[in-house]
Specification:
The chain is α/β, with parallel strands linked by helices and 315 residues long. It has helices at residues 14-31, 48-58, 73-83, 103-112, 129-145, 163-171, 179-186, 209-221, 226-256, 263-296; strands spanning 4-10, 35-41, 62-67, 88-91, 117-122, 155-162, 190-195, 303-308. Strands 7-5-6-4-1-2-3-8 form an eight-stranded mixed beta sheet, sandwiched between helices. Strand 2 (35-41), helix 2 (48-58) and strand 3 form a beta-alpha-beta unit. Bound molecules: uridine-5'-diphosphate (UDP) and magnesium ion. Magnesium ion binds at residues 93, 95, 97, 200, 205.
Length: 315
């Protein structure tokens, strides 16, 4: 059993893999531990699979899990975690944004202190101002909506996990996986290593603004039903406002008698309330959609093949 598995979800990372492998090998030899590489090809449309195959051909420590199509990073990470055999497991991106040399302090912290997870936390020095403001706002919002877990700004999926944490995460059965939250949910003492943000290697990020927004909504909804609770509060306030306004109207009626005008009020009430109702239905629909997906119980991904290195010996 290797001491450390490196799980790398790859979607169109052909131009980064060789460099990544090299840097990770250097980190492994600094550490002086036995590692395995688990490259998960998430249905790439470029040469990622060929490059990964070639790496497996030359390095017996490389294993490639090829998914049947693109299932998304969450699924790719899950596949990697399930296939990892290491005593500890590191997850890092295939685009060199998670510098492999950081594995040295991270792994060292994991084995030499009593922490069970070590997360890398990037700073935002090189981010455009708007972007860092937006993400700060996002974390504030999400943490306000989610109870029982904290999601830290700048903390991504770059982490080293003990076997105990990996097994705990794999035990969570949910299909809508929001890893940032899951890792935090399982708990255990967690250490942090900070690093300077780096630009992506070759290729482009798979994220669009829209998918980021959807990811954000997922994060807020995946964990609990607090948004539903908020809607209940909103409904309560709206009902109380209605009663108050009714009282005002009643007093007006008693003092002035019947006064017909009230067109603007009527329109405001109709549009305002139907807005709130549509919002509520939307949020409920989100939860129902999630229930639907969980009930269908489809697997998070399908494996096309697992490519073992020819030099690999089973142990
Ligand atoms: N990734 C993946 N499947 C996808 C999209 C991305 O496995 O559908 C991988 C990608 O190859 C990379 C990591 O997830 O290793 C992070 O992706 P990306 O760099 O696009 O995201 P960002 O760094 O912008 O968050
Ligand atoms: Mg990236």
């Amino acid at each position: 059993m290797p001491a450390l598995s490196l799980v790398v979800p790859c979607y169109n990372e052909a131009d980064n893999l060789v460099e990544l492998h090299e840097q990770a090998c250097a980190a492994a030899s600094t550490l002086g531990v036995d590692v395995e590489f688990l490259l998960v090809d998430d249905g790439s449309s470029d040469d990622t699979l060929a490059v990964a195959r070639r790496l497996a051909g030359t390095d017996p420590r490389v294993r490639v899990v090829r998914l049947s199509r693109n299932f998304g990073k969450e699924a790719a990470m899950l596949a990697g975690l399930r296939h990892a055999r290491g005593e500890a497991v590191a997850i890092l991106d295939g685009d060199l944004q998670h510098p492999p040399e950081l594995l040295v302090p991270m792994y060292t912290m994991l084995v030499s202190t009593d922490v069970e997870q070590v997360v890398a936390r990037r700073d935002r020095t090189d981010d455009p101002l708007v972007r860092s403001l937006l993400s700060r706002l996002y974390y504030r919002l999400v943490n306000g909506l989610i109870e029982s877990v904290r999601i830290q700004d700048g903390v991504g999926d770059f982490r080293v996990l003990s076997r105990r944490v990996v097994d705990a995460v794999l035990e969570l059965q949910e299909r809508n996986r929001f890893s940032k939250g899951l890792f935090s949910w399982v708990g255990f003492p967690t250490g942090t290593v900070s690093y300077r943000n780096v630009k992506r290697g070759a290729g482009r990020s798979g994220w669009t603004l829209r998918s980021l927004l959807n990811y954000g909504i997922d994060g807020a909804l995946a964990f609990n039903s607090r948004p539903l609770r908020l809607l209940m509060h909103l409904g309560g306030w709206a009902a109380m406002a209605a009663v108050g306004y009714l009282a005002v109207l009643l007093v007006g009626y008693l003092v002035n008698g019947v006064t017909v005008p009230g067109y603007i009020t009527t329109i405001a009430v109709i549009t305002g309330l139907s807005g709130i109702q549509l919002l509520a239905v939307g949020v409920m629909g989100e939860y129902i959609g999630r229930i639907y997906q969980e009930v269908k119980a489809r697997p998070a991904y399908l494996v096309h093949e697992v490519i073992e290195s020819p030099g690999h010996e089973d142990d």
